[in-house]
Amino acid sequence: MEEAQRKHRLRNILGGSAGNLVEWYDWYTYSAFTLYFAPIFFPAGDRTLQLLNTAAVFAVGFVMRPIGAWVMGIYADRKGRKAGLTLSVTLMCTGSLMIALTPGYAAIGVFAPAVLIIARMLQGLSVGGEYGASATYLSEMAGRERRGFFSSFQYVTLISGQLLALFVLLVLQTLLPEEALRAWAWRVPFVIGAGLAVFVFYLRRRLAETESFQKAQAETTRAANPASSGTALFRQHPREALLVMALTAGGTLAFYAYTTYMQKFLVNTSGFSNAESTRITAAALFVFMLLQPVFGALSDRIGRKPVMIGFGIGGVLLTYPIFRLLETVQSAFAAFVLVLAALVVVSGYTSINAVVKAELFPAHIRALGVALPYAIANTVFGGTAEYVALWLKLQEMERAFYWYVTAMIAISLLVYVRMRDTRRDSLILED
């Protein structure tokens, strides 16, 4: 009986994780191919200015994430984690198809960036709901003793999605000339993403619902708990909601600085080619992906708090030196080592941030509690990371961005030091 339960749990964790991979592949494909499609959607001009425009659209997707987190977090708390996961992948598929099929600025003028913005808004809604639903689903499906390990697979699949986007880019760079990539081949990964999303839709329809949701639904029906809502979240759990925002701020900024922006930094500042930048980033992300379960398992042994404090200290001490060294690095291997060093540090946040947030809230409002405060902080700090970095570069103040990342990590470090260890005081009650 116990063996059957373990297999059932593992099967659903893997199923939920596979869907998460496709969601994030679709989301990161935009960033991976920005260097190629920026001239298609925006008028010819300065390269950094074109990247700035596409970064602004990237940020628009983040603006929609709190709305998606709010609407779909409530939906997942009321209708089920499985229902929330299914809806999110439908929205992502629609956004990817729109980007793949939209003509460029030369053909339809300002309608091209307008459709791009709408597509990213849909994807932002999707990812806003995906984070809370998947974090909650994986945390509730995992057993108490290995919750940190299994919940870390949210970022394993998140990074896998980013790697898959980079892998598709590498294949296209290998098989096709640069002119073809800039003219039409950049559309291929968006078509692939839409097709994978359709497959995931059917996969998620087969997932089992979590025990936590079923119990919470029964208690809500008996009026033991209020229905999930934004008002209930901030009125009844204000401290936890603010804590999620504060612990997210530095971690999400560091994550986007070290991953999505890093690919452009290696081209725009370090001087590597597009292909070299892609290979360096992909290699570092692959090791980063493998580190997530290691740090997750470590948190099951020593607690969540020490792992997050380790990220805070490392981020404060190493962010500025790593970026400074990357400015003048000549060797691709040396660049890989420096980027990987930054990612090792941020693993202390990425591997366990989802389970920490899930452990802060009771089941009847958990998906919303995880998603909405996170999405707000993620929009303000993560979604604007590229824009801030590129704007500061235009102002010839690029190094101010390094200090900005360092300062936000320091603020989050103060929160980690003062917060309780959720491994010990978890509100996820199942064994």
Walk me through the structure.
- This protein has 431 residues and is an all-alpha fold.
- The protein contains 21 helices and no strands.
- Helix 4 packs antiparallel against helix 10 (188-204).
- The chain is 82% helix and 0% strand.
Task: Provide a quick synopsis of the model.
The protein has 431 residues and is an all-alpha fold.
Biggest beta-sheet profile: none
Unreliably modeled segments? none
Quaternary state reads single chain
Strand content: under 5%
Kindly state the mean pLDDT as a whole number?
85
Total DSSP helices: 21
N- to C-terminal distance = 15 Å
Report the helical percentage.
Answer: over 70%
Choose one word for the global shape. Answer: globular
Class derived from helix and strand content = mainly alpha
Order of secondary-structure elements: HHHHHHHHHHHHHHHHHHHHH
Radius of gyration equals: 21 Å
Number of strands: 0
Write the layout of secondary structure elements.
Layout: H1 2-32, H2 34-41, H3 47-79, H4 81-101, H5 105-108, H6 111-141, H7 147-151, H8 153-175, H9 178-183, H10 188-204, H11 211-221, H12 230-236, H13 238-258, H14 260-268, H15 274-302, H16 304-328, H17 332-350, H18 353-358, H19 366-382, H20 385-394, H21 398-418
Helix pairs in contact: 1-4, 1-6, 1-8, 1-10, 2-3, 3-4, 3-6, 3-19, 3-20, 4-6, 4-10, 6-19, 8-15, 13-17, 13-19, 13-21, 14-15, 15-16, 15-17, 16-17, 16-21, 20-21
Highlighted features:
431 residues, mainly alpha
